[in-house]
From TrEMBL:
Residues 1-22 form the signal peptide. The chain crosses the membrane at residues 386-407. This is DUF3999 domain-containing protein. Keywords: Membrane, Signal, Transmembrane, Transmembrane helix. It comes from Rufibacter quisquiliarum.
Length: 414
């Protein structure tokens, strides 16, 4: 069948409209150059994350040629737990007459402990050991009469850690005796213990455009406006007076920044606000963690009762640091493109190699931020809607004419 000019016209008219209706990036941010090749962390500032989906799926790292650069997304945790191996001082490790090796460990702070971890070179052997303690290296008291160190073998490294348990004690010196009558001594490299400690996650301060305060008879009201969408995750109050205080209150997170489609559906509906209980006490840090929600303002309400208002020197609004981890080169200019409501998270091979990339990497910061003009979606404008309806009308007319023509041809054949 011959091609119909009406169909061709409709196709040519609808093609650019369909491509223009795809969601473009709204924002672009240039990054500072990197000094040398390697992996870097790109710190996502509040000005960037505020324009992103909550999942941060709609961000891309691109090079000078606008090619996507694979990245990993890393997010700081409010509290991180680290485990470190802390060494004891080994005063001596020597072989005694009679086929016995003796390891003398110093515990100068007389730390209370019930185990010692030994870092030992790999060895296919079996050693009988005993442990005793002393405060003066003259009088020794038994802690463990006998234990056995079995095959010491690590398939990934040339060393292995063996844990020796014993009753809780705080001697200044510990003596480990190993029976070596049947073989050479073990290669004991270190002696120590594993200590677990907590570390607070790193935050970035969110700029506050305006902060107003109202003190009424029994209430203090603080209203913070940010001037753009942000994700506040922590409030830190700096209170200088009175010396002792205990005040309840609440934080009201402003209206959620809904997407364009949601705003259209809820044009006449008020989006619910989120209220978080607040307790300020001189006995605890004046810090409040907030649920992650995109807002443009928040209100802090403090119930003073019959007490005078608090003297609040400053109020900091913070968000947990978020990074893009990527391999970058000094001869390239990199930028971020983001702000697309329909975009899904990318699927890069790099996610399978997260453990191979160090946690601590040099930081790359945003150099400039600009709004992209390509944000205009032709399919959303009034003129483009008219064009689409015209195209549909032309298409319907073309199909109608084709149907009439086919019917006439069928009648002629009859």
């Amino acid at each position: 069948m011959k091609s119909n000019p009406f169909l061709l016209l409709c196709f040519l008219l609808l093609l650019p409209l369909a491509s223009a209706s795809a969601q473009d990036f709204k924002w672009q941010a240039q990054l500072t150059p990197v000094p040398q090749p390697g992996y870097y962390r790109v710190l996502l500032s509040p000005q960037i994350t505020g324009h992103l989906q909550e999942s941060l799926a709609d961000i891309r790292l691109v090079n000078r040629e606008k090619q996507a650069v694979p990245y990993l997304l890393r997010v700081e945790q409010p509290v991180q737990y680290q485990t470190l191996f802390k060494e004891y001082e080994i005063l001596r490790y020597q072989r005694r007459p009679g086929g016995m090796s003796e390891l003398l460990i110093h515990n100068p702070e007389q730390r209370t402990l019930n185990n010692i971890s030994l870092l030992i070179g790999n060895a296919e052997t079996r050693k009988t050991v005993s442990l005793s303690g002393s405060d003066n290296q003259q009088d020794w008291f038994v802690l463990k009469e006998q234990d056995v160190l079995y095959a010491i073998e690590n398939t990934q490294k040339t060393t292995e850690v063996k844990l020796l348990d014993f009753p809780l004690s705080n001697y200044r010196y510990f003596r480990l005796q190993l029976q070596d009558s049947a073989s050479a001594p073990l290669n004991i490299l270190k002696a120590g213990y594993y200590d677990t400690y907590s570390e607070a996650g790193k935050y970035t301060r969110i700029p506050v455009q305006t902060l107003s305060r109202t003190d009424s008879a029994k209430t203090t009201l603080l209203r913070l406006r940010f001037g753009q969408p942000v994700y506040p995750e922590q409030l830190v109050f700096h209170i200088s007076a009175p010396h002792l205080y205990h005040r309840a209150g609440r934080v009201v997170l402003g209206k959620k920044e809904a997407s364009a489609r949601v705003r259209k559906k809820r044009r006449r509906q008020q989006i619910e606000q989120t209220t978080v209980p607040l307790l300020l006490s001189s006995n605890t840090p004046a810090t409040l963690h907030l649920p992650r929600q995109r807002v443009e303002e928040l209100v802090v309400q403090i119930d003073n009762g019959d007490s005078p208002p608090l003297r609040i020197d400053s109020l900091q609004v913070l968000q947990l640091n978020r990074y893009l981890v990527a391999e970058m080169a000094p001869d390239q200019q990199y930028s971020l493109r983001f702000g697309s409501e329909k975009l899904d998270a990318p699927d890069y091979d790099l996610m399978y190699f997260q453990d191979s990339i160090p946690r601590e990497l040099p930081l790359v910061h945003v150099q400039s931020l600009q709004r992209l003009k390509t944000d205009i979606k032709v399919g959303k404008t009034k003129g483009s809607k008219i064009l689409i309806w015209v195209a549909i009308a032309v298409l319907a007319a073309g199909l109608g004419l084709m149907s009439i023509k086919l019917l006439r041809e069928m009648e002629k054949k009859k």
